[in-house]
Fold this protein.
Amino acid sequence: MKLILLGPPGAGKGTQAVRIAARLGIAHISTGDMLRAEIRNDTPLGRMAKAILDKGELVSDDVIIGMVKNRIAMSDCARGFLFDGFPRTVAQAEALETITQIDHVINIEVQLNRLIDRISSRRMCPDCGGTYHVSQYPDGVCPCGGKLYQRDDDREETVKNRLTVYEQKTAPLIAFYQKQGNLFTVNGDASIDQVELEISEKLGA
Ligand code: ADP
Ligand code: ADP
Ligand code: ZN
């Protein structure tokens, strides 16, 4: 199965992606996580991408498409994959069509005021990749022992720009996939378990 998770920053894409990919036994492909790994490893791509992420802008379509093409050729993608944070522009979606065929697009819808709260409360684990709400582990330590941190681009000034960029560049993908007839929308305001259930039911999985 080949899936796309669509939704604004903070909608819960990463949280759901981990669960759905595990349930279906398919690869979880987060272009955001891939870019953050490049930045951590201080690669040429990472050095180029850092300034863009820090401003909340988008990395160029060519770079992202090249990255995704390489990624889906890897052996863990043979049974299928779930894109989280890709495509983010119509140009990326059009390029994807020339590479592979997507079965379903899951659109997670969340009220704007909740998005801002979720993003500013988000904490990440550098060791296991876990994503949490700050209230889950107020002492800042992941169950795996990792020291939780806040993403640089989760600061308030950057968040506002990311939401604007989402509206301008990514939201048009909803109509793009609606026209193709393979998109369904889930209520992302519900609890994490409830959202997972709605996605699973709609996938028939
Ligand atoms: P979120 O899950 O909060 O929406 P991501 O981790 O998906 O954020 O992405 C973080 C940043 O990485 C984006 O703001 C953007 O700068 C860059 N990025 C990630 N995926 C893409 C993509 N498909 N195209 C362009 N830029 C991307
Ligand atoms: P995205 O990948 O779309 O940017 P995340 O999955 O990283 O979103 O979730 C953003 C924040 O909101 C995280 O701190 C996560 O723990 C929290 N979160 C995700 N889904 C829900 C939900 N359904 N209800 C409440 N909080 C959620
Ligand atoms: Zn951890």
Observations:
- The domain at 2-111+170-203 is CATH 3.40.50.300 (Rossmann fold).
- The pocket of adenosine-5'-diphosphate (ligand 2) is lined by residues 7, 9-15, 118, 121-122, 131-133, 188, 191-192, 195 (CB under 6 Å).
- The first strand starts at residue 2 and ends at 6.
